[in-house]
Queue: 3 jobs
Job 1
Amino acid sequence: MITELGHFALILAFLVAIVQTVVPIIGAHKRWPGWMSVAEPAATTQFLLLGFAFAALTYAFVTSDFSLRLVVLNSHSAKPMLYKISGVWGNHEGSMLLWVLILSLFGAMVAWFGAQLPPSLRARVLSVQAAIGVAFLAFILFTSNPFLRLAVPPFDGQDLNPLLQDPGLAFHPPFLYLGYVGLSVCFSFAVAALIEGRVDAAWGRWVRPWTLAAWIFLTIGIALGSWWAYYELGWGGFWFWDPVENASFMPWLFAAALLHSSIVVEKREALKSWTILLAIMAFGFSMIGTFIVRSGVLTSVHAFANDPERGVFILMILAVFTGGALTLFAARAGTMEAKGVFAVVSRESALVANNILLSVASLVVFVGTIWPLAAEMFFDRKLSVGAPFFDMAFTPFMVVLGLILPLGAMLPWKRAKPGRVTRQLLPALVLALALAGLTWAMQSGRSLLGPVGLFLGSWLVFGSLTDLWTRTGRSRDLRRLMRLPRADWGKSVAHAGLGITIFGIAGLTAWQTEDIRVANIGEPFEVSGYELTLNSVERVRGPNYFSTTANVTLAQDGQQIATLYPEKRSYPVAKMPTTEAAIDYRFLRDVYVVIGDAQGNDAWTMRTYVKPLAGWIWAGCLIMALGGGLSLTDRRYRVAAGARKAPAPAGVPAE
Amino acid sequence: MRRFREWWGKTPPYILVLCLALLAAPVWAVQPDEVLDDPALELRARELSKGLRCLVCQNESIDESNASLARDLRLLVRERLVEGDSDAEALAFIVDRYGEFVLLKPTTGGANWLLWAAGPLMLVAALGVGVVYIRRRSHARAPGEQGLNADESARLKEILDRNDP
């Protein structure tokens, strides 16, 4: 019964979305306030209906209602509760429902917090937002309906893909979708602005919080996914340049670019048409990501729907929205005249450089991702584009970006004296160089990668600290820092976070050590200064899997520092094995232990990695997200939000 | 377009099924018994393996993959190196048998130059546009300082002249 109500709510939401698309935009065009004001209640209603539909599906998963096809395919009665819930979005249909739920949530949030927007702009934004909703709701209802019943329900389900039964991955998709879909608001704002033909500083200020929020969620989502890959896939890689990873990385890069260019719009009224274009591209690439994941055109570990019909449908949505927006852009971009004037050396120019590097880097990832497809279609060649290509083609952009970032972040607006900034940053540069030189001397003649990465990372961190230090003024009064706008804090924190991530990537890539051996039980062995002993291997039974669990002690200088339990699991229902690496997380390094197959009596294959600075990669991402969060709470967004709470002009109505 | 659809339709399920079948009987990436005695040779083998794609997996190198076919390829690479092949010869040997699909780092031959040149070309184009934009902005005048029109300069001249003794 609840399932049918959920299905019905989904259909109703589709109808409400159609109304929300059509009525407000006509109202905005004709200046009919009544028609325009349909948008807000419609947005709220749509969100509530989809929330109900999603809750109904979750209920079916939680109660293991095996009359639902989706539940049968992706759940099992013995599965832990957390994964029963995360199973709702651990599949194509359910994740699409989450996608539109978040889409409608963002639409509703524009309606709730957008009271200070001009009514016609708000109506148009909500209308565009609803149009995206209509397209994806049609996609769900006509090609991927989660509420389909089975005529003959089986006794139990087929279980969720065991790789997805993991806390890290349970929350990875919702965050990623919050990011992907958050960019839809920027897209709607861009299209609405194109229809209005007006982009000004205020528009920049309205768009920025949405971009920030989307970027924060994307950052967390990508970091979670990368961390999951690190501990779950069994060899401790953190990024594989897999098509689906790239699908999330491209919007992230574009969102980062958009974040920076909308500052220029807000503060200096320049880069307007470029910012609009970026907003369109950012969401366009989110949809390309959706297309890549769900069509199966590119083989990937993650692809979970390999259905041409669905692929074509998403391709059509993509073509209509991106194509339509770009056409509108071509027609209207000329009307957006820049106002701000700035010198060649200025913060504005630095941000232009940032945008060039981020967008081109993103396009390089895009070209690499679709090249196998293009080569096969046009040149009849079956080839692969893998990590070695991306490492070579993408990394230089990030190196250059890292080099100029601290300089650009401290250049004043409009017109800058380069000498002044270089003088201020000199100590940071010297420190970073010294650190790189020291590591180069210590590692004696190995690759340059480590020292270069450490230099970049520390240059970014010290650069951010310098930026804050200069804000204390001549008096070096630290209390002034507390009065800095949150956005400035956010900037320094996020940039430092990027530095820490680069630090971690460099450390892990340059100095990882690996050991593969057959370990005998009770016989200690040494891996780069650590002594490991395989004590025992036991067969254990988990809630819905069987496990071979090893007990390994880790010792350093004769002192035991940890006991690790690497596992090998097999899920009988899903018929899939997984590895659960055991990791001793420390500040400066991780020790990563994987257990393999039995090799005769009391001997097992064991792989051990010592991964220096591994944790810094994700810590840096979290710090970046934290920086974004600080910036999001900046007072000027709240001032704008608070304005609507101010009492209406206290005039006595003339009666 | 026809080929596209054909390829689209058939490839993924086949790969998925194969991968699942292989996963059901797990073997592990680089086994102890595969490791060569000569560390220099082993290091070269590892480096080569990182650039070769596991044919039945989804975007994994044979160095990372647990599939048995990946193991065969790893052994093949080591065999070639032990027999005295250079890195390039060993790669050519494998590409001859498995096609360029196994190379994770695409060659620069044929249309692939476009792939490799895409980054630099786009960067040059973007820098060009950026430089033009920045120069135009730095020469532009902000609204309100558009300069004086003929009437205004005449009037200004009149005022200035009046003050002259």
Job 2
Amino acid sequence: MLKRHFREFSVLGVLLSVLALLGVFAPDFFAPQPLLSRLTAAAPKLVVACGIAMVMISRQIDISVGSLFAVCSVVCGLLAAAKMPVPLAIASAIAAGAIGGALNGVLVAGLRLPSIVVTLATMVTLREGLRLARQGVFIDLPDGLQWIGLPMIGGQYLVCGIALTVLAAMAAVMRHLAIGRAVYAVGSDAEAARLAGIRPRLITFVVFVLMGALTGLAAVMNVVQSPQVDPNTGRMLELEAIAAAVVGGVAVSGGRGNLGGVLVGFLLLACITPALTYIGVKPYWDKAIQGAVILLAVVADGLRNRKNGR
Amino acid sequence: MFRSFALFLCVGLALLTGCSRSGPDTGAAPSGGAPAGKRLTIAFMPKSKGNGYFVSCKQGADQAAKDLGAELIFDGPVSPDPAKQNEIIENWITLGVDVIAVACENKDGISTALKRAKDKGIKIVTFDSDAEPATRDFFVNQATPEGIGNALMDEAARLCGGTGEFAIITASLTAQNMIEWQKFIEARRMAKHPGMKMVALRPCDDLKDKAQAEATTLLGAYPHLKLLMNICSPAVPGAAEAVKQAGKAGKVKVIGLGLPNENRRYLKDGTTDTVILWKTVDLGYLTVQAAAALAKGELKAGATSFKGGKLGEFRIVGDNILLGEPFKFTKENIDQFDF
């Protein structure tokens, strides 16, 4: 167990050391209410990171999630503002995400185009289309949408609960269900998977649709945290999600990684920025430290691959 | 291949049209014929037409044109687009307008077109954001960095009673205008409000949600914080929401540079105390007044003051006509503004 998941456990070790240091130097970091608020604010990113991990395991990439996140947020906001019942507005946002994901899926799986190019195109198209349509104007949401009408604490537990449920469900699917195993198989060796009776293109398409739907869900989880939608939201989200997956040990080359690692990678990156504020480090260090963590993860993977002769 | 492409187009169009605002198009098409008689033709271009900020500038511009009995042509790109701005200016050169007033999306990008217009004898005024100084006659400057810095710092000190910790949320650590503002905020703090202590500076990448997260962290990390100063517009509502959710509304003050509509709810419920900007209606009004005076030869290079119609005297420094002190949006006056 320890040996097989050495990569994940080493990141967990780093995370625990960071938390221990914070416990000594900035115990306020663990004050329950701001901690819950911070986790709630980060929870949508975890959902996107889970999706990205799955996409990467299938040996694809999706950099359009940030733009799609903004589109889904705006769809949810506009429909709710137009007096559509809240559950319907939420469902529409998730559906919009699935449609966006299906578009990527058709282009990647159907036309066999490289996913980095396809999702680069959809990333730019969706973002610019949104800018054209909305001009950056905020959308004011009706009262019933924030925390889905719950008291704030209830809403925060709900958002965090959904993120953990998604994580657990995806971990179970990837580990125990045939489709999950098929994603690993396609990511390891698509030709071998095909010979074993798996349909790699169908799997790829399904992966992108699911990625889109998860992005829509994440957008909703973010929208409910504030009474206004900023149509610029989600900028750089794709990078944060990919970084969480990479730090958590998901291989960009496909076929390797698990959701537990994603959780640890996500938590590590999510706590660095606030931690720096708590210990009073100048903000100029933020990106440098984030970058160093990612670099370290990539180098560790590279070294391990060389040792294993891959 | 074709089927997928068609699908791509359909989805793209559906997304675009589904989201597009059906508000009235404020851009009046330029009338084809030359202006009758000696009636002055003023062409007025925002960075983008639908933007509420510029729509409110246009209100003032329309009023000034009415006061002057001049014809106002209002046109601009649908979304900020330097190339489209050039195209419109070329059209105006052909049309033979008397004077062009423009808010430039890109300083360098627009210079060639403006220079060509100037060579044809068309007078040029810039407002909101300047072009290369050589390519225009005057810039109507809505707020100097010093004016903004002083207004923010003075307001912060006033709300905190002169002493206490505050933190700044900015867009990015590299944005030139924000670095400039911070410099003047710090200079003012040292000179006038030494009791105020800036404990942290955090970037929010110009995103409301990130500003909310940063503000939440700041509130937790600095329990003695008395005020959050937000110097990019999405950060003001973001910080206000964080303060409200932390149950610190009123205890931690929120001020910043922002837009009235985005902050209306927080100004009204008392979470945000002051939003600082300039009077956009007056900016449009003064710009058109200056444009007209320039075309008539009443306003010449070297002038040190200018009478802007019903708004009275304005100071001119170099070739900048100063709109004056920044304006403070508060609970009391917020209902008069909609942008």
Job 3
Amino acid sequence: MKRITIGQFYPGDSVIHKLDARVKLLGTLLFITALFFVGNFSGYIAGAVFIVALVQMSRVPFKLLIKGLRSVIFILLFAAFLNIFLTPGEDVVFSFSFIRVTREGLSMAGRMATRLVLLITGSSVLTLTTSPIRLTDAIEYLLMPLKIFKVPAHEIAMMMTIAMSSIAMLMDETEKIMKAQAARGADFETGGLIKKAKSLIPVMVPLFYSAFRRADEMAAAMESRCYRGGENRTRLKPMKMTGNDYIAAVILAGSVILILMVGILI
Amino acid sequence: MIVSKNLCFTYTKPEETSESISFEKYSAALTDININIKQGEFIAILGRNGSGKSTLARQLNALLTPTEGTLWVKGLDTADSDNTWRVRQSLGMVFQNPDNQLIASIVEDDVAFGPENLGIPTEEIRRRVDDTLRTVGMREYALDAPQFLSGGQKQRIAIAGVLAMKPDCIVLDEPTAMLDPSGRREVLETVKALNRGSGITIILITHYMEEAATASRVLVMDGGKLVMDGTPKEIFRRADEMKALGLDVPPVTALANRLIEMGVPVSDSILTVEDFLNDGFIQTLMAGA
């Protein structure tokens, strides 16, 4: 069964799970930003070591991360291919009529793929160890300054959370619909790309239908439990930075700076 | 607790022309409903699909408001938008599909969702979450993800989520329709214990006659109207009328009714298998064998 691990939560009580969601969110953003400045492989290795260490501490099975990567393999390959063929360069490794593969292209593609892998696993660590509710709280907190400009911070955060927690359900639903249609003779396997894409249209229609119905039911359930936006809401687990959170924040920031230094200087 | 007077409700559909959108009324979903439900009652609502059961449930929770007539929940007029939140706090609702009503991805976070919306202080939320999870027997699952639990367990969490808002009444809209027999039993036992233990009014919408048989009062709806109102005994004695409404009586009641027709002197108020076995005539029969 295909599963996307981005957006899924793996409950636990490790150090990483307990860490304040704001620290984790900011840490992840920092890490992702840093990745774009890192240009050499020693930097990527440092990044990978960082992620492996975090995963070890979070006690989330590695399998889940790998599964998450498997579902985005096409995007990865696509990005790599584009880079191989579209990067200009002098050092031609291989050429055939108009196709030119250069050393620069290959190295660019390699870097791009590694960067994407690190980016995806990095953000998976965040969502795997942070319950969507905590994540919402964190996003809302970080969007707070925008409230001055009448940005509905709470609503945006709530929408993002529900969207993320719905991914798994949408995957299940798609699978169900495809099986139901395959049972009645629908063919998703053969034919060219266009034919395959066309055969997915009858899947999309019922999928949208059920997604809307779910949204409607969910909205009714939320309203009937007195949900009325972020105003006057209290929390079961209020966000409170403890000494450990500050220490963790410093360690996280330090690690990211280290990765940056390794990536730029060495 | 709940009183309605000539409650009518009509769904409207938007009629779009090039210039304007007007709302045209069509198909009355509820007509002239008069009910009076007292605190502590256990009510079952029966009726075939499209008879207006769910529409009535949504009225009780102020998700819909009457187009005519009035509905009071705890003396609060549901049509008054100032009352909406108080109505929803005192009358909780559990829906059919367990997957579409659990909002959070950890059990205790989901239970806390209602109290959080009500603005209750953190320590009190904690207490309520622990208490209600214990009440529904899900305390040890507090930190689990609902997606890995069974349907019956998910519905018990949904009940806990409503319970944490300290309601006087819980409306359950076919809560067992998607569950297996053991899940159904779990949910029903939980609901019954709440009714007996805490005196919470229960309104159970169901298609299962065995569930209705254990209620203290049964309401039967058809075509948006309330057509029968009485104790399960009074209702299930009228097997022919029930059949005409597309409904059934519990199998054991049907059996007893047939036996009576054949001249066997069993009681005419048998609703459960236990009733049947404890019946005077059956007892003497068994003693003879």
